[in-house]
Design brief:
The complex is a heterotrimer of chains A (about 375), B (about 400) and C (about 400). Chain A contains 11 helices and 10 strands. By secondary structure, chain A is of the alpha+beta class. Chain A folds into 3 domains: about 110 residues, Orthogonal Bundle (Butyryl-Coa Dehydrogenase, subunit A, domain 1); about 100 residues, Butyryl-CoA Dehydrogenase, subunit A, domain 2 (Beta Barrel), CATH 2.40.110; about 140 residues, Butyryl-CoA Dehydrogenase, subunit A, domain 3. Chain A is globular. Chain B is built from 12 helices and 7 strands. Chain B has a 4-stranded antiparallel sheet, with no helix packed on it. A 3-stranded mixed sheet of chain B has the order 1-4-5. With about 400 residues, chain B is of the alpha+beta class. Chain B starts with 6 loop residues before the first helix and ends in a 6-residue tail after the last helix. The longest helix of chain B is centred in the last third of the chain and has 29 residues. Chain B folds into 3 domains: about 120 residues, Butyryl-Coa Dehydrogenase, subunit A, domain 1 (Orthogonal Bundle); about 110 residues, Butyryl-CoA Dehydrogenase, subunit A, domain 2 (Beta Barrel); about 140 residues, Up-down Bundle (Butyryl-CoA Dehydrogenase, subunit A, domain 3), CATH 1.20.140.10. By secondary structure, chain C is of the alpha+beta class. Chain C folds into 3 domains: about 120 residues, Acyl-CoA dehydrogenase/oxidase, N-terminal domain (Butyryl-Coa Dehydrogenase, subunit A, domain 1, Orthogonal Bundle); about 120 residues, Beta Barrel (Butyryl-CoA Dehydrogenase, subunit A, domain 2), CATH 2.40.110.10; about 140 residues, Butyryl-CoA Dehydrogenase, subunit A, domain 3 (Up-down Bundle), CATH 1.20.140.10. Chain C has 12 helices and 10 strands. The chains are: A alpha+beta (about 375), B alpha+beta (about 400), C alpha+beta (about 400). Chains A and C meet through helix 7, strand 10, helix 8, helix 9 and helix 11 of A and helix 8, helix 9, helix 10 and helix 12 of C.
């Protein structure tokens, strides 16, 4: 049992934080939030040079050979600072799927480009129903002349508008069980018939509507095997869920740090407001939420990293962390009072992302249903 | 105890309801993004639309902007229960109309102003001829409002005002500041403050917009550089302003758009049904809980009206009601976003956003409910100390 | 980072489980005396068990070997605590007091003779302590205690009154905090003493708790004369010694395991009980609530493991213990609440009813859990500690 980080992991964490503090200040975050693309090519390049995009990929694919734990640590640092851009979509949602399910050619072709920052990916999974169960996948892919033709609509797809490839989850046959008829396709976003519309959302996180209108995809672009896509997605979602939790842990820590610093310096009634019991108790509650989130998230990340069954722990981590991040940022706002209610202030950047993170890949109630199933209920 | 409206009250309810359905600009209720309990999305804090202004004047013409004021000051001479009925219906339709002038400044002038002050201001307010903004908070005086520094020094028939106000909701669309200034710096904090009415057009005032986290321009920073105010504009007695402000705050805390809570929940339930989520028991449970809490809030709302009609001033009750409403604002928003999932993240700017994108805006604006007009912590302190006799910290 | 125990640690867990299965008496399981439910019989069974545990060196496993301990690693101690808690062994707060809170302080501050005597007795299960801390006017403000200890020749003379004193009626010794200098700031004039409960002048008066049982007492000291060497550590340094002992107290690291047992019982009940042909556990709301309890208990488990890990690395927890204790107490209340919801009317029945469900453990927990957020430092005090010690927020003026 070891709650400590290795020396390399400490170095990664601290250097990532320092780098981001300098290279991605809140001014840039705001700019990118309002911009259409939502990322800075210059920052993206610098992150690639640091090896961040390649961190979880084996060296033979141009990666850094790091573990999933290492990735979680990096994501926590990114969540602490807030780094707008398609890192999560590209490295986690796209990259890890290709790493697990891709053929050797696909891995050789795509992962080095991901690692060098020269390829951006997006996962087109969710549909207008916004439900995560297999039965709700209606986007269809039909075999035609040796290729596949995709028709359908996806919604709430992160970073589709700047992705080079979309991992499109489509139904390839009507099976007795909905899970058995799904295939994942690597779709070139410049294919005719692909139409992306950027949506304005709570967290300004570049979610898109993606219409597939008779989009032709070569059969070589199937990822993980025909009709075997749902397994690819289930496996990916476990990793993606924990990865998002790691990011949320960072954000929650940042919110706590900001609120405590303010409580120490803001004076009202001739004393720092942090000397009032009500405020102290809010801060104490936030500590439980942040520490608790960190532990269950890293436990889940460790199990994923070790290749151990992790369904229960991932669901526990997401159920807790999403709700905890939301609680922490709301208390943060309470402590800042009116000043936190202006655009210029930073707390709402975290408050918005907390809710988006909570919703992504199933909120706390969704996760609790998984926990209940794991308990045999 | 009686939980029904009288015949007269019922008739008034129906009259107001009919008026609103006929006279409000078309689709106003459906389009208006006002989140119940929030201070960042109050209609016509951001800007005055011609239709909203027209509507306001229609209300004024019927004598409905100052329902409870004595007729001699341009009021309707009606009961507080009727005022509450009016407020309930108005808020159900998310209608614009009454503002700081009619709901806060007017009643305070009525309670504490000299005859001269009443005659000068009340009729104009009742006729919707003037708009007021609240000039209270400063950078170093938020919860500790008594710590204000903006000074007002006597110069013959005038006060010379210097300083800065923050938050200043709606200052950019108003005519007059309802302002707390320090007129006696050597007295103890609470005893050196005066309440004055200051003309926005006075030389020396600069208004700087602050965009709130909902993306709305409701807040401003307002700077006062040697601004002249006639001493005549002091409300009540000089140096007694703190006590008038406390009463004004009680009036402010009663201004809860109770009908908006009801309507917003109705719309959310409609969406749930449309999406086929009615069978989801967790969703049902959450919505039922909200319905219960809205009922409770309604009870607080009617209770304060009853008190006022009996000549009792809701003081603790105003704090309790405001606290309840603030928490409800938060809970309604959080429930909406949770129930709607991804769809709740869509901003109103997305044309087809379900529920008008309210969940996204509400999730943000509910924060202002918890911190504006006296944060929930301050309300709890007031309830504990003034209501329960617990000693002040 | 690593979240598994070593092979050696896992086999230790097996060893403990087997030993417990053989050594927890059937009578103990039958009477099922939970927290604050002691009777004469339960206490006697408890003492018997402690002697057996002491023989194995498992009563005070952290003590140095010369005092009857095994110098056991923190992680193994964690495992031992978990298994004792899960199997509801006769081991609870009463033992924690003697072994960890008092024993820990004597280990740090006692002289060789005192350590040899008291630690060995405690480790063998021969003696146990009650805590003489709170007074009628000194609860959360513990430093304001007034019980006086005055030097008189070769002795100390104690006068005063203690309250809430758990198990004073059974204890051999009292671990007493008394004021030895009334003329200095309150934290700087306190000393710690070991008082033999058989010393003349001590009166123990029962306080009956809300479960109808006698666990607490008022203890009166009337000119109680004790030898010089009753003083532990330095005169007037007692507050700091007491605070260190409270940190041991706050560690109660087996709680997640105790909770797990209770949650498992609830899950089982919900799965087995049918209404209108449907299992209780089929109700989505209940499933959601039960799952939430499991999630929160995992969080608590991690908080407790982290503390054990910190100790194992010689890192001293500052706010972490307070945080886990406070989290644990509030979780226990939620478990009790959900339990009452699951059982409905049946939850209201006390154990002597023929329809009572698992010996009315839920009802008893529903009552006893109130004390958990209050005793040993209220949740409000714990939050103050987290805020001030953990986050550096300023003192309340």
């Amino acid at each position: 049992m070891d709650f400590g980080l290795s020396e390399e992991q400490e170095l990664l964490k601290n250097s990532a934080r320092d780098f981001l503090q300098k290279e991605c200040p809140k001014q840039l975050v705001r700019q990118l939030d309002e911009s259409k693309d939502g990322y800075s090519p210059e920052l993206w390049r610098k992150m690639a040079e640091l090896g961040w995009m390649g961190l979880p990929f084996p060296e033979k694919y141009g990666g850094g050979g790091g573990s999933f734990m290492d990735l979680a640590i990096l994501l926590e640092a990114m969540g602490y600072n807030i780094v707008p851009g398609p890192f999560y979509s590209t490295v986690v949602l796209g990259g890890l799927a290709i790493l697990s399910a891709g053929s050797e050619e696909q891995k050789k072709e795509l992962l080095p480009k991901v690692s060098s920052g020269n390829l951006r990916l997006a996962l087109a999974l969710t549909e207008p129903s916004a439900r995560y169960e297999a039965a709700y996948i209606e986007t269809a892919a039909k075999a035609h002349n040796g290729n596949y033709v995709i028709n359908g609509a996806k919604l709430f797809v992160l970073d589709a508008h700047i992705a080079d490839f979309l991992l499109c989850v489509a139904r390839t046959r009507a099976a007795d069980k909905p899970e058995n008829g799904i295939t994942v396709f690597l779709v070139d976003s410049k294919s005719p018939g692909v139409k992306c519309t950027l949506l304005k959302t709570l967290a300004r996180d570049k979610q898109c509507e993606v219409i597939f209108d008779n989009v032709v995809v070569p059969k070589e672009n199937i990822l993980g095997g025909l009709n075997r896509g749902w397994q690819v997605i289930q496996d990916l979602l476990q990793k993606a869920t924990v990865a998002k939790c790691a990011e949320m842990v960072g954000g929650a820590q940042a919110a706590l740090d900001m609120a405590v610093a303010y409580a120490k310096e803001r004076v009202q009634f001739n004393r720092p407001i942090g000397s009032f019991q009500a405020i102290q108790h809010y801060c104490a509650n936030m500590v439980s939420d942040v520490d608790g989130s960190r532990f269950v998230t890293y436990k889940a990340a460790w199990r994923v990293s070790e290749g151990l069954p992790a369904t229960f722990d991932v669901a526990v981590a997401k159920a807790w962390t999403g709700a905890a991040y939301c609680r922490v940022t709301l208390l943060g706002h309470q402590i800042f009072g009116a000043v936190g209610f202006t655009m210029d202030h930073d707390m709402h950047l975290y408050y918005r992302r907390a809710k988006a993170g909570d919703i992504l890949f199933g909120d706390s109630a969704f996760q609790r249903a998984i926990v209940a199933r794991e308990l045999g209920l | 105890m009686d939980f029904r409206f009288s015949k007269q009250e019922q008739a008034f309810y129906e009259e107001v309801d009919e008026f609103l359905t006929k006279e409000l600009p078309e689709r106003w209720s459906e389009e208006c993004l006002y989140w119940p309990g929030g201070y960042g999305t109050i209609p016509d804090f951001e800007g005055l639309s011609p239709e909203a202004e027209q509507f306001r004047h229609k209300l004024a013409d019927r004598g409905w902007l100052a329902l409870t004021w004595p007729k001699e000051y341009g009021g309707g001479g009606r009961s507080h229960m009727e005022q509450a009925i009016f407020q309930e219906r108005l808020s159900y339709y998310r209608a614009p109309g009454p503002g700081v002038a009619t709901l806060i400044a007017g009643p305070t002038i009525l309670q504490f102003g000299s005859e001269e002050t009443k005659r000068e201001w009340l009729p104009r307010i009742a006729k919707a001829e003037v708009r007021f903004w609240l000039a209270y908070s400063e950078p170093n005086a938020g919860s500790d409002l008594a710590a204000i520094q903006t000074s007002a020094v006597e110069d013959g028939e005038y006060l010379i005002v210097n300083g800065q106000k923050s938050w200043s909701s709606g200052a950019h669309v108003s005519d007059y500041a309802w302002m707390l200034v320090r007129t006696n710096p050597s007295a103890p904090a609470h005893k050196g403050i005066s309440l004055v009415i200051l003309d926005n057009r006075s030389p020396g005032i600069s208004i700087r917009p602050l965009i709130n986290i909902c993306g709305f321009h409701s807040f401003n920073e307002v700077f006062f550089d040697n601004v002249r105010v006639p001493k005549r504009n002091i409300v009540g007695q000089r140096d007694r302003g703190w006590y008038y402000a406390m009463a004004a705050l009680d009036y402010e805390r009663l201004v809860v758009p109770i009908g908006n809570f009801k309507r917003t929940l109705e719309e959310l339930v409609q969406w749930v049904k449309k999406e086929g989520l009615s069978q989801d028991i967790l969703v049902k449970d959450r919505l039922a809980e909200l319905a219960i809490e809205i009922q409770i809030a309604y009870m607080f709302f009617w209770q304060t009206a009853c008190m006022l009609d009996k000549g009792l001033l809701p003081n603790i009750e105003a704090s309790v009601f405001k606290l309840v409403a603030a928490e409800l604002s938060r809970k309604l928003a959080h429930t909406a976003v949770t129930v709607m999932g991804h769809h709740g993240e869509l901003h109103p700017d997305v044309q087809w956003a379900p529920f008008r994108g309210r969940a996204c805006i509400g999730y943000l604006d509910c924060i202002s409910a918890l911190v504006g007009a006296g944060s929930s912590e301050i309300q709890r302190n007031i309830i504990a100390a003034r209501g329960l006799g617990l000693p002040w910290a | 980072m690593e979240f598994a125990f070593t092979k050696e640690e896992e086999s230790f867990r097996e060893e403990v489980r087997n030993w417990l299965r053989e050594n927890i008496s059937p009578r103990w399981s039958e009477i099922d005396a939970g927290l604050w439910e002691e009777t004469e019989e339960s206490w006697s069974l408890l003492r018997q068990f402690q002697r057996k545990l002491g023989q194995k060196g498992w009563l005070a496993p952290a003590y140095p070997k010369e005092y009857g301990g095994l110098e056991m690693s923190h992680l193994k101690r964690l495992i031992l605590s978990e298994e004792l808690a899960y199997h509801r062994a006769p081991f609870g707060i009463e033992t924690e007091i003697s072994v960890n809170w008092v024993g820990g302080a004597i280990l740090l501050f006692g002289d060789e003779k005192q350590k040899k005597k008291y630690l060995t007795e405690v480790a063998k299960g021969e003696s146990c302590f009650c805590l003489g801390y709170s007074e009628p006017n000194s609860g959360s403000d513990l430093a304001s205690i007034q019980t006086r200890a005055v030097e008189d020749g070769d002795s100390w003379v104690i006068n005063g009154q203690k309250t809430w004193c758990s198990f004073a009626h059974y204890a051999d010794y009292c671990w007493l905090g008394a004021r030895t200098d009334p003329n200095v700031p309150k934290h700087k004039g306190i000393s710690m003493f070991v008082i033999d409960m058989k010393t003349p002048g001590i009166t123990v008066r029962p306080l009956i708790n809300i479960l109808g049982r006698h666990s607490f007492n008022e203890v009166f000291f009337d000119d109680v004369r004790v030898p010089r060497d009753a003083l532990i550590g330095q005169k007037n340094n007692g507050w700091y010694q007491l605070v260190m002992a409270l940190d041991f107290e706050r560690s109660l690291i087996g709680t997640a395991a105790a909770n797990q047992r209770l949650i498992e019982e609830l899950l089982q009940y919900a799965k087995e009980t049918k209404i209108d042909g449907k299992r209780l556990s089929d109700a989505p709301l209940l499933k959601d609530e039960l799952a939430e309890l499991v999630v929160e208990n995992e969080v608590l488990r991690m908080m407790c493991y982290r503390i054990a890990w910190m100790y194992s690395k010689n890192l001293h927890p500052s706010y972490e213990s307070s945080m886990s204790l406070l989290f644990s107490s509030e979780l226990l209340r939620r478990i009790a609440n959900v339990g009452m919801r699951v059982l409905g009317h049946y939850g209201e029945l006390d154990r002597d009813s023929k329809w009572a469900v698992f010996k009315a453990r839920i009802l008893r927990t529903y009552l006893s859990c109130i004390s958990i957020g209050v005793g040993g430092g209220t949740n409000e005090i714990q939050r103050n500690i987290v805020a001030m010690r953990g986050l550096g927020l300023p003192r309340q003026q």
